[in-house]
Amino acid sequence: MPYKKKEKTEDTKETKDAVTTKLMVFTAPSGAGKTTIVRHLLKTYDELDFSISATTRAKREKETADSDYYFISVEEFQEKIKKEEFVEWEEVYENQFYGTLKSEVARLRKLGKHVIFDIDVQGAISIKKVYEDEVQVVFIKPPSPEVLFERLRKRKTETKKSLEKRIAKATRELTYEKQFDKVLLNDDLEVALKDAAQIVEKFCKITIEPK
């Protein structure tokens, strides 16, 4: 996910009180378009910043460490679990962990940023439990399961076995729609982008100035 890299500065003298910032979670099965929507919001609005997840999977060709993900070993991840350093984490596949670090959320809020997440369904549920009214979770809904599965097949980035696992996981995740605050249909991308911006502005109660 080619998100712009964020500077990890501890200088917060000119920032807003972190308590005033909100958390926006965009979640969906893989292939539903949440990454495209989040990328658009980050490129368009200065008030938002991206929560970089930690993962134990290998870095893909077009990804950048400490920008797309914090790439760490399984041993490091498990040690952080023991130390309760994650807001949420999940072993998506065997020895393939993903998680949101408490320190990452705190860093962005200290900078006065409204934090935006691009995470899977189980992670979104966990974050909602922790932050409650401070967070709004938006489920990105594909036009149909068939369209979603075809998108996954067209990627051609996985083995047959891996693709089968991803489709099975997506099938389960589609049933979670009603557990979230908002459902955003991603049928027409331009409409979905506008709807996403309106949701963010209303929940964060800010007028976001376009760059």
The CATH topology comes to Rossmann fold
Through-space gap between termini = 21 Å
Calculate Rg over CA atoms: 17 Å
Order of helices and strands: EHEEEHEEHEHEHHEH
Under CATH at level 1, the class stands as Alpha Beta
Tell the overall outline: globular
Beta-strand content: 15-25%
Number of beta strands = 9
Spans of at least 5 consecutive residues with low confidence: 1-18
Biggest sheet character: 5 strands, parallel
**What CATH architecture label applies?**
3-Layer(aba) Sandwich
| CATH evolutionary superfamily | P-loop containing nucleotide triphosphate hydrolases
Q: From the helix content, strand content and strand pairing, which structural class follows?
A: alpha/beta
The side-by-side strand order for the widest beta sheet comes to 2-7-1-8-9
Short structural summary:
This protein is α/β, with parallel strands linked by helices. It has a single domain (21-204), classed as Rossmann fold, CATH 3.40.50.300. It contains seven helices and nine strands.
